[in-house]
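Re: your question from the hallway

Yes, I did run it. Sequences:
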Amino acid sequence: MRRLLPDPAPLDDAGLVEAYRCPPGRWLRMDFIASLDGAITVDGKSEGLGAPGDRRVFRVLRALADVVLVGHGTAAAEGYHPVLLGSAVGRLRESLGRTPTMPVAVVSRRASLDPTSGLVTDAVSPTILVTCAAADPGRRAALAEAGVDVLVCGEDDVDLPGALDALAERGLEQVTCEGGPQLLRTALADGVVDELDLSVSPTMVGGEARLLDGALPSPARLTLRQVLEEDGMLFTRYSVG
Ligand SMILES: NC(=O)c1ccc[n+]([C@@H]2O[C@H](COP(=O)([O-])OP(=O)(O)OC[C@H]3O[C@@H](n4cnc5c(N)ncnc54)[C@H](OP(=O)(O)O)[C@@H]3O)[C@@H](O)[C@H]2O)c1
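Structure:
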Protein backbone atom coordinates (compact mmCIF):
# COMPACT_ATOMS: atom_id res chain seq x y z
CA MET A 1 0.00 0.00 0.00
CA ARG A 2 1.27 3.49 -0.78
CA ARG A 3 -0.09 6.97 -0.18
CA LEU A 4 -0.37 9.15 -3.27
CA LEU A 5 -2.00 12.17 -1.63
CA PRO A 6 -1.04 14.02 0.53
CA ASP A 7 2.71 13.38 0.84
CA PRO A 8 3.48 10.28 -1.26
CA ALA A 9 4.95 7.52 0.94
CA PRO A 10 4.79 3.75 1.44
CA LEU A 11 2.32 2.67 4.16
CA ASP A 12 2.72 -0.27 6.51
CA ASP A 13 -0.18 -1.66 8.57
CA ALA A 14 0.30 0.88 11.37
CA GLY A 15 0.44 3.68 8.79
CA LEU A 16 -2.81 2.44 7.27
CA VAL A 17 -4.56 2.72 10.64
CA GLU A 18 -3.25 6.26 11.10
CA ALA A 19 -4.36 7.16 7.56
CA TYR A 20 -7.97 6.41 8.49
CA ARG A 21 -8.26 7.88 11.98
CA CYS A 22 -11.17 10.29 12.48
CA PRO A 23 -11.21 13.45 14.56
CA PRO A 24 -12.39 12.81 18.13
CA GLY A 25 -16.12 13.02 18.91
CA ARG A 26 -19.09 12.27 16.72
CA TRP A 27 -18.29 11.24 13.14
CA LEU A 28 -20.15 9.35 10.41
CA ARG A 29 -18.10 7.81 7.64
CA MET A 30 -19.56 5.90 4.70
CA ASP A 31 -17.47 3.01 3.36
CA PHE A 32 -18.10 1.86 -0.21
CA ILE A 33 -16.37 0.11 -3.07
CA ALA A 34 -17.24 0.76 -6.71
CA SER A 35 -15.94 -0.26 -10.12
CA LEU A 36 -14.55 2.31 -12.56
CA ASP A 37 -17.99 2.51 -14.19
CA GLY A 38 -19.70 3.05 -10.82
CA ALA A 39 -21.10 -0.44 -10.21
CA ILE A 40 -21.23 -1.51 -6.57
CA THR A 41 -21.95 -5.21 -7.01
CA VAL A 42 -21.00 -8.24 -9.07
CA ASP A 43 -23.83 -10.80 -9.02
CA GLY A 44 -25.56 -8.94 -6.18
CA LYS A 45 -22.59 -8.68 -3.80
CA SER A 46 -19.66 -6.30 -3.35
CA GLU A 47 -17.17 -9.16 -2.89
CA GLY A 48 -16.45 -9.47 -6.61
CA LEU A 49 -14.98 -5.94 -6.63
CA GLY A 50 -12.67 -6.54 -3.67
CA ALA A 51 -8.95 -7.17 -3.36
CA PRO A 52 -6.64 -7.85 -0.38
CA GLY A 53 -5.97 -4.10 0.11
CA ASP A 54 -9.68 -3.34 0.21
CA ARG A 55 -10.27 -6.04 2.79
CA ARG A 56 -7.50 -4.51 4.96
CA VAL A 57 -9.09 -1.05 4.69
CA PHE A 58 -12.50 -2.58 5.54
CA ARG A 59 -11.03 -4.14 8.69
CA VAL A 60 -9.29 -0.89 9.69
CA LEU A 61 -12.53 1.11 9.31
CA ARG A 62 -14.33 -1.43 11.51
CA ALA A 63 -11.50 -1.48 14.04
CA LEU A 64 -11.63 2.31 14.41
CA ALA A 65 -15.44 2.42 14.77
CA ASP A 66 -17.63 2.36 17.87
CA VAL A 67 -20.45 0.82 15.84
CA VAL A 68 -21.07 -0.46 12.29
CA LEU A 69 -24.24 0.97 10.76
CA VAL A 70 -25.84 -0.80 7.80
CA GLY A 71 -29.11 -0.87 5.89
CA HIS A 72 -31.12 -4.07 6.21
CA GLY A 73 -30.88 -4.65 2.43
CA THR A 74 -27.09 -4.78 2.62
CA ALA A 75 -27.02 -6.86 5.81
CA ALA A 76 -29.29 -9.42 4.12
CA ALA A 77 -27.58 -9.40 0.69
CA GLU A 78 -24.08 -9.65 2.12
CA GLY A 79 -24.95 -12.19 4.86
CA TYR A 80 -23.84 -10.02 7.78
CA HIS A 81 -22.42 -11.55 10.95
CA PRO A 82 -21.64 -9.88 14.27
CA VAL A 83 -18.07 -8.86 15.07
CA LEU A 84 -16.77 -11.84 17.04
CA LEU A 85 -14.05 -12.30 19.65
CA GLY A 86 -10.87 -13.55 18.00
CA SER A 87 -11.92 -12.38 14.52
CA ALA A 88 -9.43 -10.44 12.39
CA VAL A 89 -11.27 -7.21 13.25
CA GLY A 90 -11.41 -8.21 16.92
CA ARG A 91 -7.66 -8.84 17.02
CA LEU A 92 -6.92 -5.56 15.28
CA ARG A 93 -9.16 -3.71 17.72
CA GLU A 94 -7.36 -5.28 20.67
CA SER A 95 -3.97 -4.36 19.22
CA LEU A 96 -5.22 -0.76 19.13
CA GLY A 97 -6.28 -0.93 22.79
CA ARG A 98 -9.97 -1.11 21.93
CA THR A 99 -12.72 -3.49 23.02
CA PRO A 100 -12.51 -6.62 20.84
CA THR A 101 -16.10 -6.37 19.63
CA MET A 102 -18.58 -3.66 18.84
CA PRO A 103 -22.23 -3.77 17.82
CA VAL A 104 -23.69 -3.82 14.34
CA ALA A 105 -26.68 -1.47 14.01
CA VAL A 106 -29.15 -2.44 11.28
CA VAL A 107 -31.42 0.27 9.87
CA SER A 108 -34.85 -1.08 8.89
CA ARG A 109 -38.07 0.87 8.60
CA ARG A 110 -40.05 -2.40 8.78
CA ALA A 111 -37.94 -4.05 11.51
CA SER A 112 -37.07 -6.76 8.97
CA LEU A 113 -34.15 -8.20 10.94
CA ASP A 114 -34.61 -11.96 11.56
CA PRO A 115 -34.45 -12.67 15.32
CA THR A 116 -33.10 -16.17 14.62
CA SER A 117 -30.26 -14.99 12.36
CA GLY A 118 -26.63 -15.28 13.46
CA LEU A 119 -26.41 -11.51 13.42
CA VAL A 120 -28.74 -11.61 16.44
CA THR A 121 -28.01 -14.94 18.13
CA ASP A 122 -24.18 -14.90 17.87
CA ALA A 123 -23.61 -11.27 18.83
CA VAL A 124 -21.27 -10.59 21.75
CA SER A 125 -22.07 -6.88 21.66
CA PRO A 126 -25.85 -6.99 21.18
CA THR A 127 -27.02 -6.11 17.69
CA ILE A 128 -28.96 -2.86 17.44
CA LEU A 129 -32.08 -2.35 15.33
CA VAL A 130 -32.73 1.22 14.22
CA THR A 131 -36.38 1.43 13.26
CA CYS A 132 -39.45 3.66 13.60
CA ALA A 133 -42.78 3.62 15.46
CA ALA A 134 -44.64 2.46 12.34
CA ALA A 135 -42.77 -0.88 12.35
CA ASP A 136 -44.80 -3.90 13.39
CA PRO A 137 -44.91 -3.95 17.25
CA GLY A 138 -44.83 -7.77 17.26
CA ARG A 139 -41.61 -7.82 15.24
CA ARG A 140 -40.05 -5.21 17.48
CA ALA A 141 -41.03 -7.15 20.61
CA ALA A 142 -39.68 -10.44 19.20
CA LEU A 143 -36.36 -8.78 18.38
CA ALA A 144 -36.11 -7.21 21.84
CA GLU A 145 -36.92 -10.63 23.34
CA ALA A 146 -34.06 -12.11 21.28
CA GLY A 147 -31.62 -9.62 22.82
CA VAL A 148 -31.63 -6.93 20.15
CA ASP A 149 -31.31 -3.35 21.36
CA VAL A 150 -34.31 -1.81 19.56
CA LEU A 151 -34.05 1.93 18.90
CA VAL A 152 -37.30 3.54 17.78
CA CYS A 153 -36.33 6.76 16.04
CA GLY A 154 -39.09 8.53 14.12
CA GLU A 155 -42.78 7.88 13.55
CA ASP A 156 -43.48 6.77 9.94
CA ASP A 157 -39.84 6.59 8.86
CA VAL A 158 -36.45 6.30 10.50
CA ASP A 159 -35.18 9.65 11.74
CA LEU A 160 -31.49 9.19 10.93
CA PRO A 161 -30.17 12.29 12.77
CA GLY A 162 -32.20 11.15 15.81
CA ALA A 163 -30.76 7.64 15.48
CA LEU A 164 -27.21 9.02 15.46
CA ASP A 165 -28.08 11.03 18.60
CA ALA A 166 -29.38 7.84 20.27
CA LEU A 167 -26.21 5.92 19.32
CA ALA A 168 -24.03 8.75 20.66
CA GLU A 169 -26.00 8.66 23.94
CA ARG A 170 -24.88 5.01 24.20
CA GLY A 171 -21.25 6.12 23.72
CA LEU A 172 -21.28 5.01 20.07
CA GLU A 173 -20.00 8.22 18.49
CA GLN A 174 -17.67 7.08 15.72
CA VAL A 175 -19.85 5.38 13.15
CA THR A 176 -18.70 3.41 10.11
CA CYS A 177 -21.64 2.97 7.76
CA GLU A 178 -21.24 0.20 5.19
CA GLY A 179 -24.20 1.14 3.01
CA GLY A 180 -26.17 0.51 1.11
CA PRO A 181 -27.34 2.89 -1.58
CA GLN A 182 -30.66 3.76 0.09
CA LEU A 183 -29.02 4.51 3.42
CA LEU A 184 -26.29 6.59 1.74
CA ARG A 185 -28.91 8.64 -0.12
CA THR A 186 -30.96 9.40 2.99
CA ALA A 187 -27.85 10.12 5.08
CA LEU A 188 -26.58 12.59 2.48
CA ALA A 189 -30.03 14.17 2.10
CA ASP A 190 -30.22 14.53 5.91
CA GLY A 191 -26.80 16.22 5.95
CA VAL A 192 -25.33 13.82 8.53
CA VAL A 193 -22.40 12.37 6.56
CA ASP A 194 -18.92 13.58 7.52
CA GLU A 195 -16.85 11.44 5.20
CA LEU A 196 -17.01 9.08 2.21
CA ASP A 197 -14.32 6.41 1.95
CA LEU A 198 -14.63 5.07 -1.57
CA SER A 199 -12.43 2.29 -2.90
CA VAL A 200 -12.24 2.41 -6.68
CA SER A 201 -11.72 -1.05 -8.14
CA PRO A 202 -9.92 -1.23 -11.51
CA THR A 203 -12.81 -3.15 -13.07
CA MET A 204 -15.68 -2.48 -15.46
CA VAL A 205 -18.91 -4.25 -14.51
CA GLY A 206 -22.04 -2.58 -15.91
CA GLY A 207 -25.44 -3.29 -14.41
CA GLU A 208 -27.73 -1.05 -12.43
CA ALA A 209 -26.57 -1.10 -8.78
CA ARG A 210 -25.00 2.28 -8.08
CA LEU A 211 -23.80 4.17 -4.99
CA LEU A 212 -27.11 6.03 -4.73
CA ASP A 213 -30.52 4.45 -5.35
CA GLY A 214 -32.05 7.73 -6.48
CA ALA A 215 -31.50 11.45 -6.90
CA LEU A 216 -30.47 13.70 -4.04
CA PRO A 217 -32.49 16.90 -3.44
CA SER A 218 -29.33 18.76 -4.53
CA PRO A 219 -25.82 17.56 -5.41
CA ALA A 220 -23.54 16.90 -2.42
CA ARG A 221 -20.11 18.56 -2.72
CA LEU A 222 -17.17 16.52 -1.49
CA THR A 223 -13.52 17.43 -0.91
CA LEU A 224 -10.71 14.98 -1.67
CA ARG A 225 -8.50 14.50 1.42
CA GLN A 226 -6.46 11.37 0.73
CA VAL A 227 -5.67 8.80 -1.96
CA LEU A 228 -3.94 5.46 -1.31
CA GLU A 229 -3.12 2.83 -3.94
CA GLU A 230 -2.42 -0.89 -4.05
CA ASP A 231 -2.55 -3.23 -7.06
CA GLY A 232 -4.27 -0.57 -9.15
CA MET A 233 -7.08 0.00 -6.65
CA LEU A 234 -7.50 3.58 -5.38
CA PHE A 235 -8.59 4.17 -1.78
CA THR A 236 -10.09 7.64 -1.60
CA ARG A 237 -11.11 9.62 1.45
CA TYR A 238 -13.46 12.57 0.87
CA SER A 239 -14.93 14.95 3.43
CA VAL A 240 -18.55 15.97 2.94
CA GLY A 241 -19.88 19.47 3.39
N1 LIG B 1 -20.11 -1.93 -3.05
C1 LIG B 1 -20.42 -1.53 -1.84
O1 LIG B 1 -19.61 -0.89 -1.17
C2 LIG B 1 -21.78 -1.84 -1.28
C3 LIG B 1 -22.09 -1.36 -0.01
C4 LIG B 1 -23.35 -1.64 0.51
C5 LIG B 1 -24.27 -2.37 -0.22
N2 LIG B 1 -23.92 -2.82 -1.43
C6 LIG B 1 -24.88 -3.60 -2.21
O2 LIG B 1 -26.11 -2.90 -2.25
C7 LIG B 1 -27.19 -3.83 -2.27
C8 LIG B 1 -28.19 -3.49 -1.17
O3 LIG B 1 -28.82 -2.33 -1.54
P1 LIG B 1 -30.16 -1.78 -0.88
O4 LIG B 1 -30.76 -0.81 -1.83
O5 LIG B 1 -30.98 -2.90 -0.37
O6 LIG B 1 -29.57 -0.89 0.25
P2 LIG B 1 -29.70 -0.71 1.82
O7 LIG B 1 -29.72 0.76 2.04
O8 LIG B 1 -28.63 -1.49 2.49
O9 LIG B 1 -31.05 -1.38 2.27
C9 LIG B 1 -32.31 -0.90 1.99
C10 LIG B 1 -33.21 -1.36 3.11
O10 LIG B 1 -32.62 -0.98 4.35
C11 LIG B 1 -33.54 -0.26 5.14
N3 LIG B 1 -33.18 1.16 5.05
C12 LIG B 1 -32.14 1.72 4.36
N4 LIG B 1 -32.12 3.04 4.56
C13 LIG B 1 -33.15 3.32 5.39
C14 LIG B 1 -33.62 4.51 5.96
N5 LIG B 1 -33.04 5.70 5.73
N6 LIG B 1 -34.71 4.43 6.76
C15 LIG B 1 -35.31 3.25 7.02
N7 LIG B 1 -34.89 2.08 6.50
C16 LIG B 1 -33.82 2.12 5.69
C17 LIG B 1 -34.89 -0.59 4.56
O11 LIG B 1 -35.19 -1.85 5.13
P3 LIG B 1 -36.68 -2.41 5.35
O12 LIG B 1 -37.17 -2.73 3.97
O13 LIG B 1 -36.46 -3.62 6.19
O14 LIG B 1 -37.46 -1.35 6.02
C18 LIG B 1 -34.57 -0.71 3.07
O15 LIG B 1 -35.49 -1.50 2.37
C19 LIG B 1 -26.60 -5.21 -2.08
O16 LIG B 1 -26.53 -5.84 -3.32
C20 LIG B 1 -25.22 -4.92 -1.55
O17 LIG B 1 -24.30 -5.92 -1.92
C21 LIG B 1 -22.69 -2.57 -2.00
